[in-house]
Structures are given as C-alpha cells and as structure tokens.
Amino acid sequence: MPAILACVNLKGGVGKTAIAVNFAAYCGREGMRTLLVDCDPQTNATFSCIRSEDWAEHAKRNGTIASLLGVRNITKESSRNGADTVIKKGVFQNVDLVPSHISLFSVDLDLGGAVGRELRLRKALKPVLDNYDMVVCDCPPNLTIPTQNALAMSTHYVVPVPPDYLSILGVALLNTRIKELCDNLDHKIANAGIIVSRVGRKATYRENLVANLRTRFGKLVLSTELRERVAVPESVSLQKPIFEMGDEQASQEFSAMSQELLKRIKTTS
C-alpha cells in the first residue's frame, strides 16, 4: 500500500493546491509512482496539470472523481467508469491524475443518505493503489464529503497555513475535527505537519504570527517556509510543476518542503 497524503485546511487561498501538485511532481521526479487526486470541485489541481480542453474531453469519455463517488449529475458515458479508466495517465513525470468535476459542489446533496458515503473513494481506488508509491489528495476548503473521503483513505494529512491571524486560528480546530472524523470511522491517520505557506514581504506582524505558531505547535511545523512567488501561478497557467519554471529559489523551497514531508511520512508510517 502506498502512503496517502491529504492536503487540508478549512480556509481557502492558503496554498493547498500548489503544495499538493508540486509535492506530487517532486515525488514523480524522484522516481516514485505517484497519483494526484483532485477532490476540490474548483478543479484547480486538475487545471494545474492539464488544459481545460483536455479535461473536458477526458471527463466526457473517461469520467472524473465524480464518477468514482457516484454523483448523479454527470454524463452517462462516464457514470460507471472505474478508477483505471478515470485516471489520466502521465500528466507529469511518473504522475497520474484523478481529475475533479464541478458537480462535486452538490455531492453532499447527492450522497446525503448514502450508506458508507465517506468510504466511496477508498473503495473505488483500492484496485489501483498497488500501482503507486505515493497518493496525494488536494482537498476543498471544508470538511464536506469530498474531504471526508480523502481523509478516510489517507495515511497522513498536512495543513498549509499562511501567516495571517484567521488561518492560524483555525489550525487547532481543524486538527480536532479531523481526529473526530477518523475516530468515528475507526481510521488511523497521522499529522505529517503544518507548512507555513504564501509568505509575503517581511513584516514584524507576520513574523510574530509565525513565531507564535511554531511555539504553539512545536516540531509539527515544518522548518521550510514557502514564499509568495510569481512563478507559482505562472506554472499553473502553463500546466507545469514549479521545478520546470526556471525559478531556482522557488524550486529549492518546494524541494526542501517535499523532502521534509517525505521524511515525516516515512517516520510516522
């Protein structure tokens, strides 16, 4: 079984997708067979890897994560496709993709009374998991059914947190809610850490917030911090990982972050 990492936060705009996509890309570049699972109906991770035109064709013919979850509002052609068909192969080096779909916005209504609704993704991907060394799930900014499904199949989770008061305030609540969910599902999951992300220009206020975060959560906070860099959104528009953008500092930061995450995942497995 591979290590499975969920990238989660209850707040949007914290850098979840950039971390999930580029961590997956790093693992692929290191020779690990990697699967990136886009659980967010905004499909940001999907469009970070493939063009919208390619996504539309693949979604129609092969399906998306919505097919695996059993969402009703999808095309008949792809509604019963299994994981091997839904997966888009080779989006990056050694990286495959389970693309997302906008219909996930209504998934809580579609699956509201379904038995075992939190376990559908785990069951759907089980036949293909042996093909991979690492699975990375990009989650929406909430704890609705897509995030619950990601957590229910994950061995670890990571929390990106930018240096702002409201984001940091929610970390403890998020950890508590994840523990409650996994306890109820009788599922063991390890916190791989907290990543300080989207760090802007130097400011005493932000530095104090980060210092307080490190004091409160100690070694749980990764030593690597990810700064705001133009190359990150540019890489999304070009469907490339940050390592192919020619920004040495950004590449070094994401490499260091990925190395830390891999070490933590290995030591807590």
Q: Secondary-structure map with pairings?
A:
Layout: E1 3-7, H1 16-29, E2 34-38, H2 44-47, H3 52-61, H4 65-69, H5 83-86, E3 88-92, E4 95-98, H6 107-110, H7 120-125, E5 134-138, H8 145-153, E6 156-161, H9 165-169, H10 171-184, E7 190-199, H11 204-217, E8 221-227, H12 231-237, H13 248-267
Parallel strand pairs: 1-5, 1-6, 2-4, 2-5, 6-7, 7-8
Antiparallel strand pairs: 3-4
Helix pairs in contact: 1-13
Order of helices and strands: EHEHHHHEEHHEHEHHEHEHH
Binned strand content? 15-25%
Query: How many discrete structural domains?
Result: 1
The proportion of residues forming helix, as a percent range, comes to 40-55%
User: What structural category arises from helix and sheet content?
Assistant: alpha/beta
Summarize model confidence as the mean pLDDT.
Answer: 94
CATH superfamily: P-loop containing nucleotide triphosphate hydrolases
CATH architecture: 3-Layer(aba) Sandwich
The total strand number stands at 8
Strand order of the largest sheet: 3-4-2-5-1-6-7-8
Shape call: globular
Number of helices: 13
Protein architecture, described:
- With 269 residues, the protein is of the alpha/beta class.
- It has one domain (3-267): 3-Layer(aba) Sandwich (Rossmann fold), CATH 3.40.50.300.
- It contains 13 helices and eight strands.
- The chain has helices at residues 16-29, 44-47, 52-61, 65-69, 83-86, 107-110, 120-125, 145-153, 165-169, 171-184, 204-217, 231-237, 248-267, and strands at 3-7, 34-38, 88-92, 95-98, 134-138, 156-161, 190-199, 221-227.
- Strand 7 (190-199), helix 11 and strand 8 form a beta-alpha-beta unit.
- The mean pLDDT is 94.
